[in-house]
Every structure is written in structure tokens, then in C-alpha cells.
Amino acid sequence: MNTKKIIAVAAAGALAIGLAGCGASGDWEEREKQQENTTLDNSLGIQNLKERLKREEDPNAIRYLYLMSFGDIIGYYVTKGKISSSAGQLAPEEDLIKPWNGSSDLYNVDSAKDDGTYGVGDPGIFFFTTDGVMVETSLDYIQSDAPLAVDVPRLGG
To answer: pTM of the predicted model, to two decimals?
Structure first.
């Protein structure tokens, strides 16, 4: 069999398989109707994300942050407010600049971090205890808005 015939047979087979998967036109219309009737008004995923955001943005929320080392929980902190990424910053991470030669091209360059330094931000998280102490760590953690039934020491207070 020559190459053209092999390609033609393969294309015909692929087309037949593809058409067989589509089913009758009634199936297609039924699926379209189901999509039109589906709304995200009652999406549990959206409700969960909204509730999480509401809780995270409460500056007076009390949380329990359990630190882990090599999979073992080593202790916990009682925190107030949001647990935040140590790598976050207030200013943009990049600036757009025009070259001095008058070109209309724009170039992305790293901008200074909030503290005036450059480079990768600190790994991990930081938070404030209920006593107002800031703690920063790169350990794995579990966060909860109620104490968990784990027998470990309370840290920092």
C-alpha cells in the first residue's frame, strides 16, 4: 500500500470514529438544553470560595495554625487575622520601562521589593499571634478556625 492510501485510510477511520462519538443530533440538542438550564447560582464551589474569602479577610478572626516538620505536627499557634505569604509585597514585582534611545518598545524589568531589595522573596508564611507577635516560618502547616483534636504543645504564648 502506498503512503497516500495509508493516509487516506487513516483519515477516514479517524473521521468515522469521531462521528460515531457524536451520537444522534438529538443527543447534541439535549446536551445544549442541559447547559442552558445549568446556572452557577447554587455552585457549592463558588459558595465555599466566598465563605473562605470572608473568613480570611476578617482582621479579628482567631485561627489555629499547626506547624509540621517531616509530616509530624510539632505544635500550634493561636493567631489573629490572615495567614499571609512571606513572598507577597505591596508594590508591583515588575516595571515597564522605555529605552533611552527613544524607541517605543517597552521592556519588563524587576522592580525593587517593598524593602528596597531585589531578588526572590522569602519563602513561607507569616502571621500575628493573639498577643501581637509576628511569626514567620517556612514549615508546612495546617490552618483551622477551631482547635483540632491534636495533642501538641501551644507555641509562643
So the answer is: 0.60
